[in-house]
Each structure stands twice: as C-alpha cells, then as structure tokens.
Amino acid sequence: MSQVFVLAKRPVGVPELEDFDLVSLQEDSLGDGELRIEPVTFSVDPYLRGRMSDARSYVAPFEVGAPIASAGIGKIMESRAEGFAVGDFVRGEFPWASSFVLGTAGLWKLPTDLEVDPSAYLGVLGMTGLTAYVGLVVLGKVTAEDEVLVTGAAGAVGSVVGQLARIFGARVVGSAGGSAKVEQLAKLGFTAGIDYRSSDFAQALDVSFPDGISLFFDNVGGKQFEAGLHRMKDFGRILSCGAISQYNDTELPPGPRGLEGLVVRRRLRIQGFIVSDHQSHYREYLSKATQWIRDGQLQSLETIADGFTELPTAFVSLFSGGNIGKMLVNATSSAP
C-alpha cells in the first residue's frame, strides 16, 4: 500500500490543512516501460494553489479526491524500462505518494557525478533557476546598465533573479518580508534590500531608485507591483512572473492605479511568462549555472521540511512567508 495525499476539497481563500486527505491506495503493478519510484525530495511551489481551483489556467486543475502532484526527485526501486536502472535517481512530476509507478516520459536522470546536493535540481539548477534566467536574461535582456527591482526577492525564484542580475553586472534591489529575509539578500549579493512590510516602503524605493527602475522582475503582484510600476524609467521592462499576493483572493482585487497612462507615457513593456514555454533554454542555462556555482557566484537557497507527512504543512506555510529560498520536503531517508 502507498500513502497518498489527495485534494479533499477546493480551498476558499488561504489553503488549510483540512483541504488535504492522506489515504492508502493499492500500488499499481509494474508494466513494460515503467518504473517503481520512491520519492526523495518534493518541490513545494505557490503555483500549485492555482491547480487547486477549477478556474481556467495554463495547467489543468487537480480533481477533488485525486492526488496532488509536484516536481520531485526519486530513487528507482524497480525498473522495466530500458536505460533506467534500479538505484538511479530521477527528476519529474510526482504524485504526493510514498511510492508510485510511472512511465519514463518527462523523467530526467540526475548526473552520476553530482557536484551539488541533488535538491539543487529542483531549485537553482531546475525549473526555479530556469524561470529566473528566462525572465531576466532571455526576455528581460538584463545589462550592466540596468537598475533592477525584484519582489519576493528571498523566495525561490527571486533569490536566483537577484544573483543573476549581480552576475550580469546590474544594480539590483530586492523587497522581502522581515529583517531576516532582508539580511539574507545582502548575503546573496543584492545591492540593497527593502522590507515591504515597513511603513516607509515607498520612501525606501525612492531612495533606492532615485533615477527610476529600468527592469522590474515581479513575483508578488498587488501593492508591490503598483509601487514598482510608478517608479519605472521610460522604456522600462516589467517581467511578471507571479502574483502570490493574490492567489488566495476570493474576489478580483483593484487593478494597479494609472496602469494604462503610465504604460503609454513611459513606453513600458510588460511581459508575462510561463517557464514551460521556454524549456528549450534549459541546457543552456544548466551549463552556465553549473559553472557559476563552481565559481562561487551562484548559491542554492533552500528551506527544507523533514518527512513525507509534512507536505501540506510546507505548502500552506508558503502563504505566510514560511520559506527563505526554495521550499522542499525531504520525503525519505534515501539520498544520492
């Protein structure tokens, strides 16, 4: 039998632990071309909140009563698939289950000569890192002349964005919630950090960007998006990666004031993007990021919860700022 977390009911507002059920399910028998996998580490990400609703989105919603799934790293315990051996470690989208059977489509074998902790392939060397790279470099075309603002800067994507901006020579300021997170930004090499919860947040932005923002990487939306928008330089670029401040809203929030007029007068470009549209850049990014890690220019920032049963708790904590960097859950004692 396998222990599996399923969606008990669709959350209303902020997700709660009662929205999940832990059930026992009979494991599937292994067919040709299939693997039995034991999960090692799960990635827990804010975008999963959207999949818990039945609203139209870029990815199909979870069904009530069906397993939750997210990116993970697992160990092959049994194999009937060519090219995949017992003991290999793979990355893919996994059900939140203690053991499961999958085909090989969408699976990626981890290198055998690991230079980093394998969890990095869910974060800085995985889709998290690629998201930062695509937004900042491929779409944003960051240069050493840029004045960059990153919201959610102590989060999974934001912490990588800031480091990449520094690597490319830009001046980068991050906003984060609380002094501990702001202090972490300095350790990552941000030029400055601002506590968005402080009463003088707007004034701090003015001080940090006396000549305006040329490139704005937004992970938060809402009031922070509006604050950055009103401080953009002419011909500035805004990369809209996420809106975690609004994921739990039950009604449409007010739009940013002055959006249309500012976009026209300052000739701004606002680009929303989804990393799954840009998978072709992964090998390019992986090569560069691996070298940046070797050179000590790029760090992997993680918050790790221990135990498979901590998955719902880790997910819920994302919406109260419970993570610094990538939120991960160690599901088992198995490790590369």
TrEMBL record:
Its EC number is 1.-.-.-. Keywords: Oxidoreductase. It comes from the Bacteria. Residues 13-329 form the Enoyl reductase (ER) domain. It holds the Pfam family ADH_N_2. One of its GO terms (molecular function) is oxidoreductase activity, acting on the CH-CH group of donors, NAD or NADP as acceptor. The keyword Membrane does not apply. This is Putative NADP-dependent oxidoreductase YfmJ. It comes from Ferrimicrobium acidiphilum DSM 19497. The lineage of its organism: Bacteria, Bacillati, Actinomycetota, Acidimicrobiia, Acidimicrobiales.
